[in-house]
Amino acid sequence: FNSAKSGEKAVAALLSQGLLGSGSAVEVAQFLLANDGKLDASKVGDFLGGHEPLNQQALRIIMESLSFRKLPLDSALRLMISFIKLPGEAQKIDRIIEAFAHQYTECNPGVLDHPDTAVIIAFSLAMLNTDAHNP
What we know:
By secondary structure, the chain is mainly α. It has helices spanning about 5-15, 25-35, 40-50, 55-65, 75-85, 90-105, 115-135.
């Protein structure tokens, strides 16, 4: 996984070797979760930010496995980013942030008035963090 050029190619290689069972989103997500800390987080983010149905379903399953209950938005975002390093492509970042915001509002009903509010705040925090750490 870590030696592949991208997350997409890494998962494709594992699938071709039969290491992910039938290659369902559940099996891919379980592999990513079971190997947390061993996999290149940037490749994990690259794969989960993809636009294909497999990528999106795996992202949803992983987000549902993370508990953001009773966490402030910034702490929940930190928790998510500790597992999924946000990729460099804006569309991929947007897909990951939207999935995060949906899960955050599901875990914390009534904290924010609308899931779009969580998207805007989380995206802004991610961009501020990027600016602060990349002079």
